[in-house]
C-alpha cells in the first residue's frame, strides 16, 4: 500500500502541489473577500464615517451593493486561478441570468422598484408615510423590501414592488400638517357665539402656525346639530398632541360658553290610527 502511495505521489506530486496551492490561495481569497465585505459594510455604517453625511436612505443599498461586488470580484479571481475562461463564463452567466430573470420576475421587479424609490425619493428614512395601505415610519429601504415601524411598535417588511405600485402619502415631507377640529352645536344656539369660541381657542394656542392662518367656518347642517370647524396648521412634531389638546379644549369651552353639544335624536310622530291600534293591542 505504501509503495502504491509513493508511486502515486511521484507520478502526480507536481499536480497535487499545484492543486493544493490553488486551493489554499482560493480559500485565502474567500476569507479576504469576506473580511473586506464586512469591513466595507462597517465603514459605511460607522457613525464617524464621511458617508454618514449622505441620505440615510442610500446607505443600506450602498452597503449591500458594495458587499456583493466584493464577493463577485473574489469569485472571478478564484475562477481565474483554476484556469476558467472568465470571458466565456460571463457570457454564459448572462444567458443564465436572462433565464433566471424570467423565472424571478417578481423578485427583480422589487429590485427595480427599490431603485426607482431611491431615484425619485418619494420618502426617505425617518419619514412617516402611508404606502399602499402600510402606515408607519420608514426604517430602511433595501434592494428587495422597505422596512416600516408602526406607531404600536410593529415591524413590517413590505416588498418594494407593492410600495412603488400604489399611492404614497408622505406625512413628513412638507414639514407641517392641517388639523380639522369639528364640533356640533344645537340649532337653538348662536352660530356666531360658537365661531367666536373657536377663534379664541385658536388665538390662545401658541402651537398653531400664523401662516396659513387658522380659520373657523360652518361645515354642515346635520340632522341633529350645526357643525362648526376650526381649521389650523402646525408643525409635524406638534400635530397629534395639539389635536388631542384642542379637542378637549373645544368641548370644555363650548359648554362654558353656554352652548349645547347635541347628541343624535329623532322625533317620532304617531298617527291617531296607529295610537288606536296600540291601545287595542295593549287592552288585549
UniProtKB/TrEMBL annotation:
Q: Which residues form the Mechanosensitive ion channel MscS C-terminal domain?
A: 181-260
Domain (Mechanosensitive ion channel transmembrane helices 2/3) spans 68-105
**What stretches pass through the bilayer?**
20-37, 58-79, 85-104
All copies of domain Mechanosensitive ion channel MscS, residue ranges: 106-173
Topology relative to the membrane, per the entry? Multi-pass membrane protein
Q: Which residues form a coiled coil?
A: none
Pfam families, alphabetized: MS_channel_1st, MS_channel_2nd, MS_channel_3rd
Chief localization = membrane
* InterPro entries documented for this protein: LSM_dom_sf, MS_channel_1st, MS_channel_C, MscS_archaea/bacteria_type, MscS_beta-dom_sf, MscS_channel_2nd, MscS_channel_C_sf, MscS_channel_TM-2
Q: Where in the cell is it found?
A: Cell inner membrane; Cell membrane
Keyword entries, A-Z: Cell inner membrane, Cell membrane, Ion channel, Ion transport, Membrane, Transmembrane, Transmembrane helix, Transport
Function of this protein?
Answer: Mechanosensitive channel that participates in the regulation of osmotic pressure changes within the cell, opening in response to stretch forces in the membrane lipid bilayer, without the need for other proteins. Contributes to normal resistance to hypoosmotic shock. Forms an ion channel of 1.0 nanosiemens conductance with a slight preference for anions.
Assembly with partners or alone: Homoheptamer.
Family that this chain belongs to:
Belongs to the MscS (TC 1.A.23) family.
The name under which this protein is listed is Small-conductance mechanosensitive channel
Q: Which organism is it from?
A: Pseudoalteromonas rhizosphaerae
Amino acid at each position: 500500500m505504501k509503495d502504491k502511495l509513493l508511486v502515486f505521489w511521484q507520478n502526480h506530486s507536481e499536480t497535487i502541489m499545484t492543486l493544493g496551492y490553488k486551493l489554499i490561495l482560493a480559500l485565502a481569497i474567500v476569507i479576504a473577500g469576506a473580511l473586506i465585505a464586512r469591513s466595507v459594510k462597517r465603514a459605511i455604517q460607522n457613525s464617524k464615517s464621511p458617508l454618514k453625511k449622505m441620505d440615510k436612505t442610500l446607505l443600506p443599498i450602498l452597503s449591500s451593493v458594495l458587499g456583493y461586488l466584493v464577493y463577485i470580484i473574489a469569485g472571478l479571481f478564484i475562477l481565474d486561478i483554476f484556469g476558467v475562461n472568465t470571458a466565456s463564463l460571463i457570457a454564459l452567466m448572462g444567458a443564465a441570468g436572462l433565464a433566471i430573470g424570467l423565472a424571478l420576475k417578481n423578485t427583480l421587479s422589487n429590485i427595480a422598484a427599490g431603485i426607482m424609490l431611491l431615484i425619485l425619493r418619494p420618502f426617505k428614512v425617518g419619514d412617516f408615510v402611508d404606502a399602499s395601505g402600510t402606515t408607519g415610519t420608514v426604517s430602511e429601504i433595501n434592494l428587495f423590501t422597505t422596512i416600516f415601524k408602526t406607531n404600536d411598535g410593529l415591524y413590517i417588511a413590505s416588498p418594494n414592488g407593492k410600495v412603488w405600485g400604489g399611492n404614497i402619502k408622505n406625512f413628513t415631507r412638507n414639514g407641517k400638517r392641517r388639523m380639522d377640529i369639528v364640533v356640533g352645536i344645537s340649532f337653538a344656539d348662536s352660530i356666531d357665539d360658537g365661531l367666536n369660541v373657536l377663534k379664541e381657542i385658536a388665538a390662545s394656542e401658541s402651537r398653531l402656525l400664523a401662516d396659513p392662518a387658522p380659520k373657523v367656518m360652518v361645515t354642515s347642517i346635520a340632522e341633529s346639530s350645526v357643525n362648526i370647524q376650526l381649521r389650523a396648521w402646525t408643525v409635524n412634531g406638534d400635530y397629534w398632541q395639539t389635536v388631542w389638546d384642542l379637542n378637549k379644549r373645544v368641548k370644555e369651552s363650548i359648554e362654558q360658553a353656554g352652548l349645547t353639544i347635541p347628541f343624535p335624536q329623532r322625533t317620532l310622530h304617531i298617527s291617531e290610527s296607529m295610537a288606536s291600534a296600540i291601545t287595542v293591542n295593549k287592552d288585549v
